[in-house]
């Protein structure tokens, strides 16, 4: 009726609508072509999945994704998606992917124990076929453990361990026949007997008990007992628990304890006592002494642990990089391994996370100061003669009881002065029972390699 | 009318339940549920079957520290609480007198209350350690020529003293605040009346202040004793497990040894002791209060 639009107007509108539609269509076609081009370009850039149980905490992951992998992508054009997962998830996922024959993961980053398990089931590629990695030397100890079940199962990626820290003052009180060089390089003269004489000398000359251990409730002293003293004196962590050698070891510790700062039983980490000068010689996990070295890099030296009658026992935590069988892109994965084991990359990882390099060349790449002191010490331990490497057993929920047995033995024998043979005979069946109940294998060196 | 009346009585009948429902829900969720879980943890194994293995471990295992922990917790309470009550009473009486700088003294006394127990422990650790403030001071003054060793398994009696010092320093303020408040509430009139009759200081204390302060002292005792069974941070910092205490053992069993059942058992034992002590104090408290009213 009273139409507001004249035919002329409506024609004009339909015209502008038509123009708008045409513009939209053209824009859509351009966008579509552009997207197709972009997407096809995307497919040309290689992308792989790296699954890891290490560097999973948010801060470390941010470093891996934000710095490490973006640099790698710039250098090689390979896009890596980093997937952090728990130890048990990793095993489950690799097992199911391998059994289904449909592998999506190209690179695995995991601890020695897990990789050992995967290699035993034949899930890992033999990495020796990729040739060598030029410009870097892996310590023999690490390469020995990387060869599993007849193949080179992984490339050593990062390590963590427990070392000794010496305040340079203490070198003025070395006992007869022991030199500073012996201690720093871990020569055959650097023995537990020499440590005892050193601590005794320090006590007699200064009147202070200047050797210390983290034997507080949250301290890691228990690792010193089962992973350092036991292998060094008995050649094993578990097997020779109540042997004659073990009795000798406990008697040694009793004697040593006379010169150990008694406040040790209240210390959880050694950085503070070292900085306050309460002790001059200390043993602890690298992460728990890092603070002292960072604050006074000129005051402290990190040195290998001493040797016992059977060798130099020490605990090694090794993380390795492995390629699963049937991985979608093993070549790209190998490039990533090459990048991650470069000395410069390894130093960056140490700076950000506290995991130590596995290649000798890293020590020269590290900036002078605290980091270099730490790397040199850890490297010296890895390359010192007569190693007996101990691995922490994987006992799951029973790992607390494992610790408890060694701590109870220490408390009863050393602190309360009970008869070692009696105490050890009582505890040994409990210890064996833990392995029987969980079905876990005895850890190296007990199991051999 | 009747329906209205019935409706009214219906509301009247259920309103109280409705009103306490939020509080009841709170209690069920935040106390009932964790308590049930605690009991379940303490008396079942991994498969959920009833077991007494945690109780056996607690009482008989060579790795368990239950008996020493119980002993040391009681000993610490027995030494610390009387000292704190005496000190707090002394400070309160001192501060109820008028003198210059009274307010300042009051503030200073209360400072430790604002510091956490772990921080308090760390402060005393650095004061008492071999290279610490006191040893350096006394050696510089020539009073001692060897540092006095306070820490370590071999020096447990000294560690005990260190814990007592730190706890007295840290928690006396709490007792003081309660007793001081009680003292302020005593009406001046009683004291003035006594003065009119020629009562001396001792008589005033003995016959007016102490009897009227009793309820505050009892409150302070109750709170302080309950806290004594939860003592943890200070002991962990100063003595580790050299001097085991119940709460410390619960923590150790849980986080280091992964014995969740045993840790739950410790928690239940601490709770049971607290309930018993609370009951005893409240009984005493009530009888006293009623007697006073009757008089």
Report what the structure shows.
The complex is a heterodimer of chains A (449) and B (295). With 449 residues, chain A is of the alpha/beta class. Chain A has two domains: 47-159 and 318-375, D-Maltodextrin-Binding Protein, domain 2, CATH 3.40.190.10; 161-316 and 387-438, 3-Layer(aba) Sandwich (D-Maltodextrin-Binding Protein, domain 2). Helices cover 51% and strands 13% of the residues of chain A. Chain A has 17 helices and eleven strands. Chain A has helices spanning 7-44, 58-76, 87-100, 112-120, 140-146, 180-185, 192-206, 221-234, 244-257, 271-275, 286-295, 330-340, 343-353, 362-365, 370-383, 399-415, 420-438; strands spanning 47-52, 79-84, 107-111, 147-148, 151-152, 155-167, 211-212, 281-285, 300-303, 312-322, 387-390. In chain A, helix 2 links the parallel strand 1 and strand 2 (79-84). Chain A is elongated. Chain B is mainly alpha-helical. Helices cover 78% and strands 0% of the residues of chain B. Chain B has helices at 2-43, 53-60, 66-96, 102-110, 117-128, 133-140, 156-185, 188-196, 201-228, 233-239, 246-255, 260-294. The termini of chain B are far apart. The relative contact order of chain B is 0.12. At the A-B interface, helix 16 of A face helix 10 of B.
